[in-house]
Design goal:
about 45% helix, 7-stranded mixed β-sheet, alpha+beta, about 210 residues
């Protein structure tokens, strides 16, 4: 194949990466994918001797790099847990607003009812996630572990399961168990330390 064909492939890859970056809800992923796309764009511009294209992508790469540095070196967010009653008015509005997305992960019946552990996961005091759980013998059964789309970067999940004893009595609890529901949730559970058990549920040992 002629070299021009491969040059075009590089150009298409750069364009695809830049388009993909725009679709990201996470600012961090947007910057990372955008940076890779811009670097590939620089290479493409040099290959076809289109220096304005290379220069533009170089500027974009610098912007992404500076933004990434600010994101990764800025102060850490304050993550905390806020218990609420099952009939809390804000909880009702939260459930209503995110009903479609919640159903995708947890089905139409959330089963909050009289669950003893109900509360919001906060990031810098912004309600970014919801936890609903109940003890069952030596297990803590998580019925809802939901994070709104813009905060799905594992920060809340890792905080939640590493600091359970900060907001509930974990005496006698040996593991956390939950149902995956959909493949996307399975990936999340695996990344925060869960693994399937013999019953098909996902479990995370404590301690």
């Amino acid at each position: 194949m002629e070299a021009s064909f491969w040059f075009e492939v590089v150009g298409y890859v750069a364009s695809a990466l830049i388009a993909l970056s725009i679709l990201q809800q996470s600012i961090l992923r947007l910057r990372v994918i955008g940076l890779v796309g811009a670097v590939v764009g620089v290479v493409y511009g040099l290959l076809i001797v289109a220096y304005p294209v290379a220069a533009l992508n170089l500027v974009i790469a610098v912007i992404h790099t500076v933004s990434l540095r600010r994101l990764t070196t800025s102060r850490r967010e304050k993550v905390s847990f806020l218990p609420v009653a099952a009939d809390d008015p804000y909880l009702e509005r939260f459930l209503d607003f995110h009903a479609e997305d919640l159903e995708r992960f947890h089905g139409p019946a959330l089963g909050i009812g009289d669950a003893p552990v109900v509360g919001f996961l906060l990031r810098d005091m912004v309600p970014a996630g919801l936890l609903v759980a109940r003890p069952d013998g030596s297990d803590l059964v998580v019925e809802v572990d939901y994070v709104i789309p813009r905060y799905r970067d594992l920060v809340l999940g890792r905080y939640l399961f590493a600091h359970l004893d900060e907001f509930m009595d974990t005496e006698g609890i040996r593991r956390v168990v939950t149902d995956a529901g959909i493949p996307e949730h399975e990936k999340y559970l695996a990344r925060v330390g869960f693994a399937p058990d013999h019953s098909g549920r996902w479990a995370l040992p404590l301690g």
